[in-house]
Every structure is written in structure tokens, then in C-alpha cells.
């Protein structure tokens, strides 16, 4: 649906206080099984601030696979040339989100935000940087019971469930903006929605006002959200609004509402030509459907214009029975008591001759003949249509059966490869068959149940071949709830785990043996970290400061002499006394030699000239060679400044987006984190799969660390730290 093409605003109240107009714009509409409310508070109160919301619904059957997209934005200290800036960002996100219908809603949102980052980076390079530090934005997608969202800036997002309020955006509030390349939007959060859940997005000023007036609590406690109730809540607070300006978006899931598409299909109305064709094709034939007023078939609306003839029969005369016939073995007095007027009952006396005479003179009119012919033709067409549909259905079933046989024969080839101990070939053959099954299940065609069973059978074999272990209840090692600390990154050094946030000067240290922790104040904001030795840790603070830690004591601070002032380090690792920094924008690896006692460290480019460059690399780790994780799901190995080889990550489930790689000289494996698929993957250093750990509880993976002996994996997932024994 085009931007704002379906919005209608209702001005609830407009008054003047000290020449300031207080206006509340409310929009509400049922969207599928949701009701959406949009409030604009005093949109003209501040000339240097703009805010808006953009609501996009699927425009066709393909976009419906990705659900709804809701965007809310606010810019402070706005310049005139940026009045349309929010709309431009929203159009970029919307265009990319609905671009490919086959991908998941989570991946679609990630890709659309990546596109938005590219757009913002281009704007900054053009000199349009006024919005930096002033932009707040929330992107939210909802499909069935699944939601995904990302946020930047000061907008607040809450989930209201059964009267309780959950701040689902708090884990994203401390994301660090990376300027080279510019990355405004970072991580996303995914979750499941329950019937009657509510999501509310508030700009900073409106959030503070709602909090002071307990409006969020009142909305959460409403049994049923209606436009009238919301008006009354706001009307009681209108005198307190003053100059408060901002936006609120409220999404209410309605338990009793059916999806909008199903409502249309039940009526057979409002569908696109493609949808109508599909819908009519699956309607079973029945005579009751022909005579129903429901416009299932196109000709029925003409069919009801046919006028049937009215047959007039002669009136029948009535005669009285003067005497009551005697009934055998029954006393007449008994009937007279029950039916006192029984003797007055009259029955009709049919004059046969009169009817026969009328029948002889009755003739079928020409109009009736034409109507009967039309009815006969229509019935014949219906019978032929039903016959053709049956033939087509039978043909589809035969084709599906033949295709099912082909797939099973391909499975036999995979099983033959297993007999020959060629697991890689068997896995590839199973994956090819699995890919062919997916369209049969998604379309919902003939033999869908048989295809689903075959898919589950193949997945079981693929899980076994690819060493995938699903963990239903991972062991919790530590929980940060109640500490008012939301860790984003972690590192291990000896028997200590360190957690930090790039926007904070505090580090939280946990003893692995005692499972207890304490805060360490560093004085610097830590962006990256790497262990050096068994008990020492280096923390890097942008742009050029190193903090050298041992246990809880800061031993020394170093300054890094910048090789190039434009360098921006996005990963950091150590090997012996050498420090290696990755600049993925320029595709450079800078090496520094650590000498204790020196205040400033000098560095140089580690890569030899005319070598493959790690441009747009994601992560780096060192074991003597340097392993580079690339954004196209490959791993490059460099040694002595020279490119050596590439490992293609080809296993099941197929990789989508890895975020980090780890190894060390004492570990024989490579460890890869993939938050988007809730898993961590263990490979040997030839690329062969060793183990995969996957769990539904790994729904917000941020970082991970490996114990010195490699037998324990620590996973930072939101506010919890899980441990997996390997």
C-alpha cells in the first residue's frame, strides 16, 4: 500500500494555551487480526523537530508472506532540507523489505536495515550530517505471531501482556554507532506474540509524559482497547500536555478477529485477479453453491435475474360434514369432551373436473421455455466445469506421485553414498532433495502430507550427517537480571569472564569457579578486547588507547600510534606479543608489537602487497595463521602476510549470516557464531563439520567465549550466559 494512502486522521481536541496549539491526531484501523492506533501530539509545537509513522501492508499475495511493516521516526534540530528525511528512509526500508518474498521476516528486516545504513552512509558522504545524533527510529515487522524489530536513538518500545509491561527495546539501546562504514542500525530482536498482546512505541517526550501520568499502565490494564476509551484517557490529560510534542504507535492484537485475507476469501470479494483465480479454482462444486446468494462463480449474479413463472390454480370449494361418522370401539362422548367443536370441522371437497379442465387449457409460455433452456445450459456448464476440475485434480495427483517417486529414487542415491562412507556426497544429495520438496509443501498442492513426511525424514538424516544437536534446555551459567547492566560483548582470560558495553566505562568480571562477579571501573569506554597470556587482557578504546588488565588491576595504558588517521578497527586479536587490528573498510591488518614500559606503540601493515584484502570482513582470530570470516560465509586463512586458502562453509542448515569466529593456538577447531539461526558451529581447520549446537533459547545471541581446554562454550544471550559442554 502506498505511503499513508489509507490514513485518515481525527482531530480529537484543539485548544490554545499561551498561543501554543495542542492537537492530537488519532488514526485507527483494523489490519488483519490487529488494530493499529497512531497518535501525533502537537506536531507543530516545535519547529526544529519532526516525527512521523509509516504503516505498510502487503499489496499482493507474495508480499503477504512477509506480513506488515511499521516504521516510526523522529529527528531533532532538523534543517529545512531534511523535512522529508524520515519518509526517504522509510521508503528505502519498505522497498528492500518486500523485495524477496522467499526469505524469512527476520532476514528481510535485516536486509532492509542494511539498505537503510547504506542510504544514511551515502547521505553523510554528501555532507548531510545534521541528522547524526538527532535521529531516533524504530522498524517493526509482524507476521502471524512473530515480530522482529530494531531501534536506534531515544524511541521506547514496550510489549504489554496480561497487564504486565516489558521493555523489549532495552537490549538494543546501547548499540554503538560505527562511523566507518556508517552503521546506524545494528542488531535486531525477534520474538513471539500471544493473542491480545499489545506493542507500543513512544518518542522520548511522550514516553516521559506517559510515565508520569501512568498512561502506559492504564493502557496495559484495559481489557479491550477501543478508540473511545483511548480518547477518554487522553482527554483527561489534555491540560497537562502543554508543549509536549511527539508520537505514539499502539498495535493491539485481537484474539477474536480473523486475518483480513480470510475474511475476503470467505466473501469471495476484494481479491486481486491472481488471488481470485486461485480462490475460485479450489471451490468444490455443489448445487447448493449454484443457488446460493454468495457470488462464488461469475455467472451467478446474472442467474438470479431469471424470473420464474407463477402458476395460478383454481380455488377449491369447501363442504361441511353434517354428521360425525361412528368410530368403532370408541365412545363419541369422549371425543366431544376433548374436542367440543369437533362436529363443526369442515374438509375440502375437491372438484376433479374443474382441475382437469384447467390442466387441459394450461400451456407453457415462450418465456418459460427460454428460462428453462438457460437453466439447463447453466447446469450443463457446471457439470462440465466439475468434470474438467476433477480431471485436472487427478492429473495433479498423478504428477505429484511421479515426482514423489523421483525424490525417493534420489534418496536411494544418497543412501548408496552413505554405504560407501561418502558422507559429504550423501549430505549434498539429501540437501538437493530437501530443496526440491520445499515448494511442494509451501504451495499446499496434492500429496502435501506425503511431501511433509518425506521432508521430516530427510531433515533427520541431514541433522545426523551434519552433527546438529538441538538443545531444548541449555544450562544457565549466569543471569544479569537485576544488575542494571546489559552486556554486549564478552571475553575469557584464564578463569575469568569479562563483559562490557562499548558505551560504558564499567566492566563486569565473573569468576568461573565461584560464579560470582563484580564491577570494575576503567575510566575508558571499551570497544574491543583480546586475551594475552592466561590471565591478562587487553581492552581497546577508540580511537587509539589500550588498557592492560590483570585480574582486577589496570597495569598500564598504551597509546597506539595511528598508521593512517582514517583507519577504523572493527576487530582485534593477539598472538604472543603481537597485536593485530582488522580494518574491514580498507581491507587492512595492522600489527603492533607490545613492549611493556613504552607509552606509545608503533604499528605497520601486516599484509604483503598484491595480496587478497579482507574487505568487508566480519571477524578475525589467530592461532599462528590469521583466520578471516567474510560476509559471504567463507573463511580465508593468511600466514606470514600471505593469503593461503579459503574455506567454503557448506553444510546443513545452510549458513545465512555468521557474526564471529574464534580459535587459538591450543584449540584444534574453528568456532563460528550464527545468531540468525540460533546456533554455534564447530569446524576442524579443513572446514569439516565437527559439531553444531542449536536451541530455541538462543534467541538473542550477542557474543561467545571458549574455555582454555576447549570443552566449554559460554554464550552471551541477552541477559543470560549459557554454557554448553563439548
Q: What is the chains' assembly state?
A: single chain
Overall pLDDT confidence: 79
What distance lies between the first and last C-alpha atoms, to the nearest angstrom? 50 Å
How many helices does DSSP assign?
15
Shape: globular
Strand order of the largest sheet: 1-2-3-14-13-8-9
Looking at the structure, the CATH topology of the largest domain is: Phosphatase 2c, domain 1
The CATH homologous superfamily of the largest domain is called: PPM-type phosphatase domain
Largest sheet, if any?
7 strands, antiparallel
The low-pLDDT segments are 1-25, 256-331, 341-347, 352-360
Radius of gyration: 37 Å
Residue share in β-strands: 25-35%
Domain count: 3
Judging by the overall fold, what is the CATH architecture of the largest domain? 4-Layer Sandwich
Name the CATH class of the largest domain. Answer: Alpha Beta
Structural class category = alpha+beta
User: What's the number of extended β-strand segments?
Assistant: 42
What proportion of the residues is helical, as a percent range?
Answer: 25-40%
Amino acid at each position: 500500500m502506498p505511503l499513508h494512502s489509507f490514513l485518515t486522521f481525527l482531530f480529537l481536541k484543539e485548544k490554545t494555551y499561551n498561543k501554543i496549539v495542542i492537537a492530537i491526531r488519532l488514526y485507527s484501523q483494523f489490519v488483519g487480526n490487529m488494530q493499529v492506533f497512531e497518535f501525533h501530539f502537537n506536531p507543530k509545537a516545535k519547529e526544529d523537530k519532526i516525527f512521523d509513522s509509516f504503516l505498510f501492508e502487503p499489496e499482493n499475495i507474495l508480499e503477504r508472506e512477509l506480513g506488515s511493516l511499521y516504521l516510526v521516526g523522529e529527528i531533532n534540530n532538523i534543517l529545512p532540507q531534511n523535512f522529508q528525511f524520515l519518509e526517504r528512509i522509510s521508503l528505502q526500508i519498505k522497498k528492500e523489505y518486500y523485495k524477496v518474498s522467499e526469505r524469512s521476516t527476520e532476514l528481510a528486516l535485516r536486509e532492509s536495515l542494511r539498505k537503510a545504513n547504506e542510504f544514511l552512509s551515502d547521505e553523510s558522504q554528501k555532507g548531510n550530517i545534521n541528522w547524526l545524533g538527532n535521529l531516533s527510529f524504530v522498524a517493526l515487522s509482524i507476521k502471524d505471531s512473530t515480530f522482529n524489530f530494531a531501534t536506534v536513538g531515544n524511541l521506547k518500545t514496550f510489549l504489554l501482556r496480561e497487564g504486565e509491561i516489558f521493555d523489549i527495546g532495552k537490549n538494543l539501546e546501547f548499540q554503538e554507532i560505527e562511523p566507518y562504514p556508517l552503521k546506524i542500525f545494528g542488531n535486531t530482536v525477534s520474538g513471539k506474540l500471544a493473542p491480545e498482546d499489545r506493542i507500543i512505541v513512544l518518542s522520548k517526550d511522550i514516553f516521559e509524559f506517559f510515565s508520569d501520568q501512568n498512561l502506559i499502565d492504564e493502557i496495559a490494564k484495559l481489557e479491550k482497547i477501543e478508540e473511545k476509551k483511548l480518547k477518554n484517557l487522553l482527554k483527561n490529560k489534555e491540560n497537562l500536555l502543554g508543549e509536549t510534542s511527539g508520537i505514539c504507535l499502539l498495535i493491539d492484537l485481537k484474539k477474536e478477529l480473523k486475518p483480513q485475507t480470510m475474511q475476503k476469501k470467505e466473501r469471495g470479494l476484494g481479491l486481486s485477479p491472481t488471488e481470485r483465480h486461485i480462490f475460485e479454482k479450489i471451490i468444490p462444486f455443489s448445487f447448493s453453491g449454484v443457488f446460493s446468494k454468495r457470488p462464488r462463480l461469475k455467472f451467478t449474479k446474472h442467474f438470479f435475474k431469471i424470473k420464474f413463472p407463477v402458476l395460478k390454480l383454481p380455488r377449491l370449494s369447501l363442504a361441511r360434514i353434517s354428521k360425525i361418522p361412528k368410530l368403532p370401539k370408541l365412545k363419541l362422548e369422549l371425543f366431544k369432551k376433548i374436542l367440543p367443536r369437533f362436529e363443526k370441522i369442515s374438509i375440502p371437497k375437491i372438484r376433479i373436473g374443474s382441475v382437469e379442465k384447467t390442466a387441459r387449457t394450461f400451456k407453457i409460455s415462450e418465456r418459460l421455455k427460454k428460462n428453462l433452456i438457460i437453466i439447463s445450459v447453466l447446469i450443463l456448464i457446471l457439470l462440465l466445469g466439475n468434470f474438467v476440475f476433477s480431471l485436472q485434480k487427478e492429473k495433479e495427483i498423478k504428477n505429484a506421485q511421479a515426482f514423489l517417486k523421483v525424490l525417493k529414487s534420489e534418496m536411494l542415491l544418497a543412501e548408496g553414498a552413505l554405504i560407501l562412507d561418502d558422507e559429504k556426497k550423501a549430505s549434498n544429495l539429501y540437501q538437493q532433495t530437501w530443496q526440491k520438496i520445499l515448494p511442494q509443501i509451501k504451495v499446499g498442492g496434492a500429496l502435501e502430507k506425503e511431501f511433509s513426511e518425506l521432508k521430516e525424514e530427510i531433515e533427520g538424516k541431514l541433522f545426523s550427517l551434519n552433527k546438529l544437536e538441538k538443545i531444548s534446555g541449555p544450562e544457565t551459567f549466569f543471569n544479569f537480571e537485576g544488575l542494571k547492566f546489559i552486556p554486549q560483548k564478552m571475553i575469557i582470560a584464564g578463569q575469568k569472564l569479562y563483559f562490557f558495553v562499548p558505551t560504558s566505562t564499567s566492566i563486569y568480571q565473573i569468576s568461573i569457579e565461584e560464579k560470582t562477579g563484580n564491577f570494575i571501573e576503567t575510566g575508558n569506554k571499551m570497544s574491543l578486547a583480546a586475551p594475552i597470556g592466561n590471565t591478562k587482557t587487553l581492552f581497546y578504546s577508540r580511537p587509539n588507547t589500550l588498557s592492560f588488565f590483570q585480574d582486577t588491576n589496570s597495569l598500564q595504558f598504551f597509546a597506539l600510534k595511528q598508521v593512517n588517521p582514517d583507519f577504523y578497527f572493527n576487530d582485534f586479536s593477539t598472538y604472543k606479543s603481537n597485536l593485530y587490528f582488522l580494518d574491514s573498510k580498507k581491507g587492512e591488518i595492522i600489527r603492533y608489537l607490545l613492549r611493556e614500559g613504552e607509552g606509545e606503540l608503533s604499528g605497520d601493515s601486516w599484509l604483503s602487497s598484491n595480496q587478497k584484502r579482507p574487505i568487508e570482513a566480519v571477524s578475525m582470530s589467530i592461532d599462528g595463521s590469521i583466520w578471516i570470516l567474510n560476509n559471504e560465509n567463507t573463511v580465508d586463512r593468511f600466514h606470514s602476510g600471505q593469503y593461503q586458502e579459503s574455506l567454503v562453509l557448506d553444510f546443513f542448515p545452510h549458513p545465512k549470516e555468521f557474526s564471529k569466529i574464534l580459535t587459538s593456538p591450543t584449540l584444534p577447531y574453528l568456532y563460528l557464531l550464527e545468531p540468525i539461526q540460533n546456533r554455534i558451529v564447530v569446524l576442524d581447520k579443513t572446514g569439516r563439520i565437527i559439531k553444531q549446537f542449536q536451541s530455541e533459547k538462543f534467541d538473542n545471541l550477542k557474543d561467545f567465549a571458549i574455555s582454555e581446554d576447549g570443552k566449554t562454550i559460554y554464550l552471551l544471550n541477552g541477559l543470560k550466559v549459557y554454557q554448553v559442554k563439548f
